[in-house]
Amino acid sequence: MQDPARLSQMEFEKLDRERRRWKLACLMSFFASLALMSILGAQRPGKDDPPPPDDEEIPRDVVVSKLSLVDFTGDCRGELGCMADLSPYFSLRDRAGKERLRVALARNELPTITLLGASGVELVRLSVSDKGMAEVSMKDAQGITRASLSHGAPGTGAARLSLSDGKGIERCLFEASDQEGVLSFFDRSHHARLRFGLDRDGAGLSLLDGQGKTRARLGIEGDGEPALIL
């Protein structure tokens, strides 16, 4: 059987340890509250703090002649500025520093979007002419136009799809307007040799000689009658 005096001493020491733990917890809570109040107080404007600026005092414009976009290595990857002819442009470059995309407004106020290959050759151009014709042209690695799609041709307003050979000579043309839909094929001299579609004379297939004169035609004429003309 344990000594009652010894039990009282053990219980006293246990209560004293509990008391010290609670005291430490209260002190930590007190200092944490002080730190939180200090942080919140620093975020609130004081009496001596300057008032926030009015909207009129905040600068709204940045005036520069050229802006450069660089990556984390310091290489230029994009530009926004004006060319020597006062045309504004936006340009993006690849990692090798080659220009790959350019959006510009020419001096005659006509917009263009240009896509370039890794060699710097223009491959695709989207533009609007001074007569309101929108056009997309596609070029090969030598810079020769091989295909173009346009809309709003002067005089007819027709949509046109043109395909060219490696020398840039047009070899195939499809035109569509309110009255016609014609597919034409050309020789190396750019003379039409075959024409197929629907035109003012009806629907048919026409064969032409080297001078562009129709030598044979098979089709349905405008009056609805079939015809073979040689």
Can you tell me about this structure?
With 230 residues, the protein is α+β, with helices and mostly antiparallel strands. The chain has a domain at 53-128: Outer Surface Protein A, domain 3 (Alpha-Beta Complex). It has one helix spanning 4-43, and strands at 66-70, 76-82, 88-93, 99-105, 111-116, 122-128, 134-139, 145-151, 159-164, 170-176, 181-186, 192-199, 202-208, 214-221, 226-229. A 15-stranded antiparallel sheet has the order 1-2-3-4-5-6-7-8-9-10-11-12-13-14-15, with no helix packed on it. Strand 8 and strand 9 (159-164) form a beta hairpin. The longest helix is centred in the N-terminal third of the chain and has 40 residues, at 4-43.
**Beta-strand residue percentage:** 35-45%
Shape summary: elongated
How would you sum up the major sheet? 15 strands, antiparallel
Number of helices: 1
**The CATH architecture of the domain at 53-128:** Alpha-Beta Complex
What's the CATH first level of the domain at 53-128?
Alpha Beta
Task: Give me the count of strands.
Answer: 15
How many whole angstroms does the radius of gyration measure? 40 Å
- Identify the strand order in the major beta sheet: 1-2-3-4-5-6-7-8-9-10-11-12-13-14-15
Oligomer: single chain
Mean pLDDT: 79
Q: Which structural class fits the helix and strand makeup? A: alpha+beta
Amino-to-carboxy terminus distance: 137 Å
Low-confidence stretches: none
In N-to-C order, the SSE pattern is HEEEEEEEEEEEEEEE
Q: What name is given to the CATH topology of the domain at 53-128?
A: Outer Surface Protein A, domain 3
Approximate helicity band: 10-25%
